[in-house]
Amino acid sequence: MSLFGTPFDAVHDTAVVTGAGNGIGRAIAQALVDEGVRTVFADVSAERVSAAIAASSRPDLAVPWVGDLANMQACDALLATAYAALGEVTHLVHSASPPRREADHAFAVDRKTWQEMHAVNLDAGFHLAREIAKRLIAAKRAGSFLFLTSLHADTPRNLPHYSTAKAGMAILVRELAKTFGRYNIRVNALVPGAIAAGGFVADASLARHIPLGRLGQAEDLAPMALAVLSNRISAYVTGAAIVVDGGLSLTNWFEAPVLDA
Ligand SMILES: NC(=O)c1ccc[n+]([C@@H]2O[C@H](COP(=O)([O-])OP(=O)(O)OC[C@H]3O[C@@H](n4cnc5c(N)ncnc54)[C@H](O)[C@@H]3O)[C@@H](O)[C@H]2O)c1
């Protein structure tokens, strides 16, 4: 059998993707339905969900859900929709994150913005993963969860609400990977670099700090996301943080040498 031909079991694998209305979440949700996986496209924006589904290759496999994941009741409503539409949820991608504004430095960020950033990234991610895991464990089914973290889980971003939320997610991934491993539920982080998606207003000059010479696109993340989510390709990968950044994290104040060869 070809190794990459059928990464998913289209009959039994099902997915919930948060933040599926835009950027990286949208690219991953669209790639999942491309692979035949029935997928809930979850986002706070109804317009974005409709457009993401309409632009996918298999709208028939997509289930729309609209709500604010900063609210715990909304997280439960998302799960109820997913179970009603899909039966079981075997794969979770948590990509939703509120917009980040460069002005929200340590003195400027207000309490609401701080709390919303943590609520959507960390609280919703924990709640959704824990609830999905409970059902999978009861049903003795394997699962695979992927959290979109950031290089700024480790390095400051001048946005403390964002970097602390991502740092929390990074250790949450490792906590859950350790706890759920014996039940065959894998939990990993996908760490994007500078991706010209909605959440990051890209300055093109940043490209000169990226060894591969360009900013990333949401579509650069989707193949790796699917590889890590796939129980066929990545059955022995859990608790990992997979960096997809064109080499951005390799850069510092030393320029790369120019080679004569
Ligand atoms: N773009 C980058 O360069 C980059 C870099 C590192 C990490 N990331 C992470 O990757 C993920 C996706 O980033 P992106 O740039 O594609 O973001 P994006 O802003 O393009 O998309 C995020 C989506 O989340 C949705 N959302 C926001 N708040 C929500 C809420 N309360 N409830 C439900 N949905 C909500 C938005 O409507 C949007 O469609 C985020 O977690 C982000 O932190 C992105």
Automatic annotation (TrEMBL):
GO terms for molecular function: oxidoreductase activity, acting on the CH-OH group of donors, NAD or NADP as acceptor. PANTHER family: BLL7886 PROTEIN, SHORT-CHAIN DEHYDROGENASES/REDUCTASES FAMILY MEMBER. It comes from Bradyrhizobium centrolobii. Belongs to the short-chain dehydrogenases/reductases (SDR) family. It comes from the Bacteria. This is Oxidoreductase. It holds the Pfam family adh_short_C2. Transmembrane segments: none annotated. SUPFAM superfamilies: NAD(P)-binding Rossmann-fold domains. InterPro entries: NAD(P)-bd_dom_sf (IPR036291), SDR_fam (IPR002347). Signal peptide: none annotated. GO terms for biological process: fatty acid elongation. Coiled coil: none annotated.
